[in-house]
Design a protein that fits this description.
The chain has 367 residues and is mainly β. It is built from 4 helices and 21 strands. Strands 1, 2, 3, 4, 5, 6, 7, 13, 14, 18, 19, 20 and 21 form a 13-stranded mixed sheet that branches. It has a 3-stranded mixed sheet with strand order 9-12-11, with helices on one face. A 3-stranded mixed sheet has the order 16-15-17, with helices on one face. The two termini are 44 Å apart.
């Protein structure tokens, strides 16, 4: 993968091609399977088409509709003396970040929630359709956004939300269902779809396995994290009622020192069955985290986009640490600089930033 391959197309919100950019200082583009990734582009203000790198325009990398992002930040770099330089810093979100611009607003004639039952794919697509494509308030419509055909992926489930950020709700449902989601450029529309990941681990024989290890020479700078701090593996889900009359259901099956108990407030559950479902969903949000982060040496034994993809479950191994785990590729960061290109992969749950930790602890809403 060379810098010459990383051509950036600049496209207007109306899908007009505004220019192609080949020369820039650096580009870092992060794609997330469950959440919303981001990008940062450094480019000289004197480069051709730098003038169209403005808020709301869309960037497409390598002519690939699944590698699209939207500009949300533009600034001129300042040097150490406080003087303006010729360098522009452009930042923004993975294209599916447009869904962070909508809340799940409950209908006025219901119980205060937007609820939906069906396959997990149908549930995710319902919330996108109801709040971006066919909302009651047409001012909330996102132009050119469409739904891909429903393939009935995932099990039958039920979710409901109330004034949650749409992208956060999709991330929550997706992580629970093990289904990714994305908004890609498709002809002259933006297409929302759910993504079914693939198993490429060493212990299956359906697809060629994808193996990552320093011993195989295809990774560098490994960083392995396991954390049980603040985690829970067993929950007591509390439903409606007060005191001894409150319905309580246990979720989880841990024992001994692996059992870390927590109380889960599920007072809005409408039935015992709903209480079990909601309790299981909430327990998954506080599960122990495990991640394996490192840089992949491009095209060394395996090629991204051919042998493995975002969302795939693969086998990662470190003889030095005595660690072998099957883990999902939850995040990919492509880095393009003058010295070449690199690929950084997060396996398992990405370590949350301080901002996300504060938001989760302080502002989390109750479904």
């Amino acid at each position: 993968m060379s810098m010459n391959d990383a051509v950036i197309k600049v496209i207007s919100p109306g899908f007009d091609l505004l220019g192609e950019i080949r020369n820039y200082e650096s580009l870092q583009y992060t794609r997330s399977f469950y959440g919303v990734g981001e990008f940062e582009l450094h480019i000289s203000n004197n480069q051709q088409h730098a003038n169209v790198l403005v808020n709301g325009n869309i960037l497409m990398l390598d002519k690939a509709g699944q590698k699209a992002c939207i500009i949300r930040h533009r600034e001129n770099e300042i040097d150490e003396n406080g003087d303006e330089t010729d360098l522009l810093i452009i930042k923004g979100l993975q294209l599916k970040g447009i869904l962070s611009q909508r809340l799940i607003v409950p209908p006025t004639d219901g119980d205060g929630y937007d609820s939906f039952s069906g396959t997990q794919e149908a549930i995710m697509k319902h919330f996108v359709d109801a709040h971006c494509i066919s909302p009651t308030d047409t001012n909330r419509t996102i132009p050119h956004l469409a739904l891909a055909a429903d393939q009935s992926r995932g099990i039958q489930d039920k979710w409901r939300f109330r004034f949650d950020v749409l992208s956060d709700a999709l991330e929550t449902v997706g992580q629970y269902a093990k289904l990714g989601w994305d908004v890609t450029l498709d002809s002259e529309q933006m297409l929302f779809d759910v993504i079914q990941p693939h198993d490429r681990t060493a212990n299956q024989d359906i697809l060629p396995p994808a193996l990552f290890s320093t011993e195989f020479g295809n990774v560098k700078v490994p960083h392995f994290i396991q954390s049980w701090i603040g985690a829970a593996t067993q929950g007591y889900a509390g439903g409606q009622g007060d005191g001894v009359d409150r319905l309580i259901q246990q979720v989880g099956s841990s024992t001994g020192l692996d059992r870390m108990e927590t109380f889960l407030d599920c007072s809005d559950a409408e039935s015992a069955a709903d209480l079990l479902t909601l309790g299981t969903q909430k327990l998954a949000e506080v599960a122990p985290t495990q991640s394996f982060e490192f840089s992949v040496i491009p095209d060394r034994s395996m090629t991204y986009g051919k042998d493995y993809f975002l969302g795939d479950t693969v086998t990662v191994w470190s003889k030095k640490w005595g660690v072998q785990m099957d883990a999902q590729i939850t995040q990919l960061k492509e880095v393009y600089e003058s010295g070449g290109a690199s690929l950084e992969i997060t396996f398992g749950e990405a370590t949350p930033s301080l901002r996300r930790f504060i938001e989760h602890k302080t502002f989390r809403t109750v479904r």
